Amino acid sequence: MSRILIVEDEDVIRSALRKLLQHNQYEVEEADSVSNACARYELTQFDLIITDLRLPDEPGTAMIRKAPTVPVLVMTSYASLRSAVDSMKMGAVDYIAKPFDHDEMLAAVADILARQPTDQSMQGEGNAPAAGAPDPSQIMFGECAAMQKVFTLIRKVAPTDSTVLIQGESGTGKELAAQALHQLSPRAAQPIISVNCAAIPETLIESELFGHEKGAFTGAVSVRNGLIEAADGGTLFLDEIGELPAEAQARLLRVLQEGEIRRVGSTQSRKVDVRMVAATHRNLKAMTRTGEFREDLFYRLNVMQIRLPSLNERGSDVLGLARRFLKRLGDRMNKPDLSLSPDAMQAIERHTWPGNVRELENAIERAVILSDDAVVTAEDLNLENEDDVDVPESLLAENRAQPRPAVAPERGQDLSLEDYFQHFVLENEEKMSETELAQRLGISRKSLWERRQRLGIPRKKGS
Ligand SMILES: Nc1ncnc2c1ncn2[C@@H]1O[C@H](COP(=O)(O)OP(=O)(O)OP(=O)(O)O)[C@@H](O)[C@H]1O
């Protein structure tokens, strides 16, 4: 069982996080400051340290120095995203912005633990690379021809500085592919900064990406570096690039053309050395025809294109992935040696997986929790009735092959979660910001955005 140390001075957050992790079969210890953590525990015995950034004595980033062999996940408020980026530069493995939803935290924890060198669970027999040499197959699984083509492209493109556009439906592994491109590149020792263009408020995106001068706008009380500068020497991953507003598109084009950025409110440019990787589930080319996306930017980004196949194009990989998730999640939840019954395998092969690999991962997690013995059955997977279960919204794709009705048929008078969500958003979107809406719904801004896309109620421009 993985051991996690939480360092957080706010009792409520610390105990909620402890319960969440314990509920998910992790062994958890806690401390309210860096000095207490060091005094009470042998830090090397932990598999992961989750720390708040602001603590009463030393900042949470001190844990990176004090436990150099243990991965440190930093929690920060959205307002201090910059310090999160700095924490990454200091060696934190990841950061998570508060308020985070449970799924987001669990996914980050699982991801970090899976990346540990001792965990070979995602490597398939015959799919492992030569020892020591980084390979895409160490980072993501794929044995089918379509994924082998993706890996070949990644191997070829990664060592170059070319801009890459990754396309694929939601949950197909675009972010993992970006990680692979970075880790296989000569920039691997430098940071990769991931920005979800859809999750940052439109009014803030330019200053977040490009930085701003003091007094550039109300609230710009001091000079701030942008995320592009933070990625200097490394890779900038722009997820959901199709959501970038027009003005930011123009600025980004300049960065790509001239290798220079200009902070908001500044007349001076500065050189940056950043490799850009962008991803989208949308058809950017079609968006250029409707004027939603700049054509010149599209061509600049589309130097190399990697298309991730949807899960139902991957043949027997679906079972290969299911087995690997079963092993990893089973180990994590203290249920080792789980296997799939024949009817579970059939159900997995028959399902259309509109939410792709993410949906499969979540379905297996649910089944591991529900299974009573060593064999996971089709009933544990419950794929036929998926719409009736409390499924995390992040699990469902925006662009399904066959859209499902928002209200499941014959569900009686009860409001489904989706109905509730839709009512709540439509009733409150005029008076609340996206951040407030997300907070009231108890989900992340990214989840709010994803659900809006899926339910066909996108955010109105300028709100
Ligand atoms: N080939 C793969 N092997 C192992 N895990 C994978 C693979 N592809 C995706 N996953 C897992 O599926 C989940 C979704 O992947 P990821 O976030 O990279 O998808 P995405 O295409 O970027 O999604 P979105 O468009 O919604 O941001 C993650 O937990 C990731 O680790």
From TrEMBL:
SUPFAM superfamilies: CheY-like, P-loop containing nucleoside triphosphate hydrolases. Keywords: ATP-binding, DNA-binding, Nucleotide-binding, Phosphoprotein, Transcription, Transcription regulation. One of its GO terms (molecular function) is DNA binding. The modification 4-aspartylphosphate is found at residue 52. GO terms for biological process: phosphorelay signal transduction system; regulation of DNA-templated transcription. InterPro entries: AAA+_ATPase, AAA_lid_NorR, CheY-like_superfamily, P-loop_NTPase, Sig_transdc_resp-reg_receiver, Sigma_54_int, Sigma_54_int_dom_ATP-bd_2, Sigma_54_int_dom_CS. Residues 140-369 form the Sigma-54 factor interaction domain. It comes from the Bacteria. The keyword DNA-binding applies. Residues 3-113 form the Response regulatory domain. PANTHER family: PTS-DEPENDENT DIHYDROXYACETONE KINASE OPERON REGULATORY PROTEIN-RELATED, TRANSCRIPTIONAL REGULATORY PROTEIN. This is Sigma-54-dependent Fis family transcriptional regulator. It comes from Hydrocarboniclastica marina.
